[in-house]
Amino acid sequence: MTKSELILQLAEQNPHLYQRDVERIVATVFDVITDALAQGNRVELRGFGAFSVKERRARAGRNPRTGESVNVAAKRVPYFKTGKELRERLNADDTSQSAT
Amino acid sequence: MASQTVTRAELTEAVYQEVGLSRNESAELVETVIEEMCKALVVGEVVKLSSFGSFSVRQKGARMGRNPKTGEEVPISPRRVLVFRPSHVLKKRINGEEVSAIEGEHDGASQDGQTSSFD
Hints:
The structure holds two protein chains of two kinds.
Chain A: H1 3-13, H2 19-38, E1 42-45, E2 49-56, E3 59-62, E4 69-72, E5 75-82, H3 84-90, H4 95-98
Antiparallel strand pairs in A: 1-2, 2-5, 3-4
Chain B: E1 5-6, H1 8-18, H2 23-42, E2 47-49, E3 53-60, E4 63-66, E5 73-76, E6 79-86, H3 88-94, H4 101-106
Antiparallel strand pairs in B: 2-3, 3-6, 4-5
Helix pairs in contact in B: 1-2
């Protein structure tokens, strides 16, 4: 599912809304999450999961091709932890266990 | 900075401010966005959101684990786990870097492979 498919899905379920508004709704949701993380805040959506920001310290990395040592600057990375309810839904039936 | 937690309430408020719908309907729409993503993931679909990231489901096999407190060996059953891969754009935004409009448009929810230098 892509963002545009998500928009179509929502538009179908809400025929009274303009597609343009549905697009703005979806954009707003992910913009607000992005902005919150950019400010170092945490985003918690019960039943889905929580987004947070983790600090990564500077480290000496290595260029895997040349073996050269390079300095990797400290940075912040987004982190997602799946919520309990979704984790359970993902493993709800036996078909998922026998797959692979 | 004082860290705050953003929840459905803030998302609802933003949607309410942005689109002229009632708070109630805004809340329902936020819920639908989340629920549609959940449904897709539960059936094993990848959810790709350009300039944000992608969610995919990975199947994990059975393995032996250990109770870290007692040192006891316990079997861990096979399971499905959700993996989030942040896009380029999101990673840059989080580090306060500029994101060009073109980048935002064409970021395919991070299939880069070149910046996978985490952990």
